[in-house]
Specification:
Elements (H helix, E strand, L loop, with lengths): L5 H21 L5 H21 L2 H17 L10 H16 L7 H10 L8 H12 L4 H12 L4 H8 L3 H21 L16
Helix pairs in contact: 1-2, 2-3, 2-4, 3-4, 4-8, 7-9, 8-9
GO molecular function: DNA binding; sigma factor activity
Keywords: Sigma factor, Transcription, Transcription regulation
InterPro entries: RNA_pol_sigma-70-like, RNA_pol_sigma-70_dom, RNA_pol_sigma70_r2, RNA_pol_sigma70_r4_t2, RNA_pol_sigma_r2, RNA_pol_sigma_r3/r4-like, WH-like_DNA-bd_sf
Amino acid sequence: MQTASPGDIDSLRKREAIEAIVDQVKAGDVQAYRTIMIQFDRQMYTYCYYILKNHTETEDAVQEIFIRAYEHLHQYTRQVSFSAWLYKMAYHHLMNIKKKQSRWFKLIERCKEQVQPMPGQSFSQHEPVIHELLTHLTSEERHILLLKGVEKYTFDEISEIMELKPATVRKKYERLRRKLLERNGKKGEVVHGTFTATNGMH
C-alpha cells in the first residue's frame, strides 16, 4: 500500500478546511465567506491579471467572481475541489470579458527557470523569444498552459474548469506544446527544456 507524501497530506488538509468553511457559508454563516475570499484573493487576482493585464479591470473581475461564486455556492458539490470550481467560475467570467492579450509574467519566469542558454547568451536574451512564442497561442491555449504549467492542475481538473473532456485537454496541451517548439525551431533559437516541467501526464 502506497503511503501518502507529506505534501499530499497537507494538500488534503487544506482542501478539507476549505470544504468545512464552505459548509458554514451554506448553513448561513455569511461572515465565513470572507475567509474564503482571503484564502483565494491572491490566486484569483494573479489569474485574472494574466488575462486582463490591467489592474483596475482585474480588481473588478476578482470582485465579480467572488460575488458570483457566493450567489451560486448552493450549486457547488464536492465532485471537484472548491478551488477547481472557483477557477471554473473565473474562467467563464474572463471569457465573457473577451480580453485576448496578457503578459504571462509568471509563465515567462517559469520558462526562464528551465531555459539553458546557448554559449555566450544570457537569460535576458531569451525573453523576447518567449514573449513572441506565447503571443501566437489562442486564448484557449493560454488558459490551458496557465492552468497546467503555472497553477499545476491535472488534466481532469482542467477539463472540469473548461468543460472539456480530459482527453481533449491532453491533446490540446500536447498540440500547443508542439506548436511552441516548432515555432521556436523556425526562429533558429535553441531554448532547451522549455515547458518540460509541465509535460507530466496526470
